[in-house]
Amino acid sequence: MSWSCSNYLCLSSSSSSSSSLISSHELTRVNSCNLSCEYKEQRRKDPINIVAYNGLKPPSYKLDKPQKRKNHALKKPNNISAYYSLKPPSYKFDALEPYMSKRTLEVHWGEHHRAYVDTLNKYLSKNDVLYGYTMDELLKVTYNNGNPLPEFNVAAQVWNHDFFWESMQPGGGNLPILGLMEQIEKDFGSFANFRQDFIESAMSLFGSGWVWLVLKRNEKRLAIATTTNAVTPLVWDDIPLLSLDMWEHAYYRDYKNDRVKYANVFMDHLVSWNAVLGRMARAQAFVNLGEPKIPVA
Asked: Strand 8-11 relative to strand 21-22: parallel, antiparallel, unpaired?
C-alpha cells in the first residue's frame, strides 16, 4: 500500500495514539519516510483499526479479513422492501382533459399500475435469482422464450404503463416532426396510411392488449405491432417507439365501449410526437436507418 503525503489524517483506535493533520508542504522527505514507517509499524500491530482518508469518515463496518472478492457479488439485502417504484406521469392528472379525465388517471395509474408494481415487488421478495436485473433484462428473462414465468405479466405491465404515460403529453397530437415524419412516410407511404393502419390495428385487437409503433432491428424499418395481455415488443428484440393501451380500464370511464373514438382521440390530441422523436433518436444508436437522419438537439 502506497502512502500519499497530501492532507491525510492518520487514525488509530489505540488509546495511546492521537490524530494529527499534516499538510503536503510541511512534509520533508525524512518526515514522509518516518510517517510511512510509523504507519507500517502501526498497521503491523493493528491491521484492522487504522484507516487513512482525505476528509471522509471511516466506514462504520469492517470486512472479514479472509473474505474473498468473489463474495462481493450483488446479493439481496435482508431489509429490502421494494425493488421497483411507482413512477408518476410527468404531467398532472388533469392535464390531459378533456381527452383523458383526471378520474381515469387516478384509477388507471393509482390503482391498476400501483397494483402491478406492488405485486411485482412481492414476487421478487421471494425470488433471489431475479434480484438485481434491470427492468428490460427482467422482462426478457421471465418471458422465458415464450413460456412466461409468473413474474412476467406484472413486470411487463409495469414497463408498459410507464411507457404509455410517456407516450402522451398535454396538447399532444398534430403531426410528427423532422426526420420522424420522413421515416413514417418512407415506411408507410404517408402519415395518413400510418394513422389508418394504427387505428385499424387497435380495432382488430381481440380482448385486452397494446398497439405499438416499433423499429424493427433486422428489417431496419418502422412497423405497427399488436400484443395481447401484457406482452411487449421488447421480447422480440423490437424497439418500441409509441404505445396505446387497449385494456378496458384505459378508456371505459371516458369512452365506454367506443374504442374507435378512443383511438382517434389518442392520435389527434394525446400522442407525444416529441417523445417518439426522442426514442427514435436513441434507437438510431443501435439501428442505422441511413437517410433521413433524425437530428438530436
From this structure: antiparallel
Strand partners, 52: 10
* DSSP H helix total and E strand total for the chain: 10, 6
Residues present in the chain in total: 297
Residues 6+ apart with CB under 8 A from 249: 107, 108, 112
| Residues 66, 72, 78, 79, CA torsion sign | positive
Rg, the chain, Cα only: 28
Task: Give the separation between CA 210 and CA 177, rounded to whole angstroms.
Answer: 24
Measured distance CA(252)–CA(262) in Å, rounded:
9
How many angstroms separate the CA atoms of 273 and 275, rounded? 5
Q: Per residue in 34-81, pLDDT tens?
A: 545 554 555 555 544 443 333 334 444 444 444 433 443 445 555 544
- Is there a contact between 197 and 263 (Cβ–Cβ < 8 Å)? no
What is the C-alpha separation between 200 and 102, in angstroms, rounded? 27
DSSP state at residue 168: B
What pTM was computed for the model?
A: 0.71
Other C-beta atoms closer than 10 Å to the C-beta of 212 total: 24
Q: Is 206 exposed, middle or buried (0-12, 13-18, 19+ CB in 10 A)?
A: exposed
Run of H or E including 120: helix 114-125
C-alpha cell at 88: 408518476
In angstroms, the CA 54 to CA 189 distance is: 63
pLDDT tens digits, one per residue of 218-238:
999 999 999 999 999 999 999
